[in-house]
Amino acid sequence: MRDFIHLPARIHKGHKNWVPPIYMDEREFFNTRKNKSYSYSDTVLYLARKNGHTAGRIMGIINHRYNEAHNEKHGRFIFLETYDDQDVAHELLSAVERWAKNKGMVKMVGPLGFTDKDPQGFLIEGFDQPIVIASTCNFPYMIPIMEKEGFSKEVDLVVYNIPVPKEIPEFYRKIYDRAMGRLDVRLLEFKKRKPLKPLIRPVLQLVNDTFVDVYGFAPFEEKEMDDFANRYLPLLDPRYIKVIVNPAKEVIGFIIGMPDISKGIIKSRGYVLPFGIFQIIQARKKARQLNLLLGGIREDYRGKGVDTILGVAMLNSANKGGMEFIDSHLELESNVKVRAEMERMGGKIYKRYRIFQKNL
Questions:
Q1: What is the DSSP letter of 194?
Q2: Which residues face 110 on adjacent strands?
């Protein structure tokens, strides 16, 4: 397990855009007793050795809950890491394919974890751009390796770079004022983490309700909600969390952003304790890029300006915090409504990821 977790640091040595994982989180992820996702999935881990050295790794996943809900028989692979070596990649992918086929699967997709909240896809455009937390980093050679193994495109995801305006555009202000005047809702903003805790489960329940049709999404169970919160809440800045509630105090919309802490994670080499946390905090203070992590609006409130209320509130906070750019995180290429909104704000695609597929 130590070899599996630390192999990427050796493969990516000298790779300026690579960001190590937070190793404390990695150990939790691979702990079958603590990670609830293992309870409804079959998994396998493989290491490849060559000339006496570890030369590659891969994880296979069969998410039975997702397959049953979508009437699929898909196996998944994730955490594929190799040097530029077709033979090693072939052995690893072939091993996972045989494993999945023996369990009755008819198709292999990936990189894709237990859910779409895990890092997904291989980077196919934007190799010169820094990687943000919870995103895959790979060398360009991984794409021809995948194609030579018979894999082709399943779906692409795009990432936008959006400039933070010094002033909110007039058309957004008008929509914001109209929505706030017409809707009986309340915008919640935060300075401390403590008031956020009672909202964690309602927010993630809204994710369950609104992400049903998102590729690769698996709904959170209550234990998973707590695990997800414990994983990210200590790293979040409350100023970049916006929640909207209705008169019944039900969460009907939210958006979560996070100052880019990649430089701090790189300096700490992925070790939060004992001193890495200070480097991460320092990076958060100096960040000029805000990374969007998650957002959602209840279906009966869509098209009424709730998205604009959240967006204006986030842009105001980003401006006050000295942010210059926003990273949209991964958006499905088919999500034309969200993409149109990003482009309306001057956003440009600067990274593209691809999930591959292969019939078994």
A1: G
A2: 356
Give the β-pairing of 325-327 and 289-297: parallel
Task: Answer yes or no: is pLDDT of 227 > 80.
Answer: no
Cα–Cα distance measured from residue 175 to residue 31, given in angstroms and rounded to the nearest whole number: 47
Do 88 and 50 touch, CB atoms closer than 8 A?
yes
Task: Note the pLDDT tens digit of each residue in 163-220.
Answer: 999 888 888 889 889 998 889 999 999 998 888 888 888 888 898 888 877 787 777 7
Find where tokens 């809707």 sit.
Answer: 183
Name the token pair of 153: 């495109």
Token code pair at residue 284: 């958060």
List Cα–Cα distances, 238 to 92, 180, 200, 256, 317, in angstroms. Answer: 42, 22, 13, 9, 10
Query: Hey, what's the torsion of the CAs at 120, 122, 127, 131, to 10 degrees?
Result: 20
Residue 197: count other Cβ atoms within 10 Å of its Cβ.
10
Domains of the chain: 2-156 (3.40.630), 165-323 (3.40.630.30)
Q: What is the C-alpha to C-alpha distance for residues 269 and 267, in angstroms, rounded to an integer?
A: 5
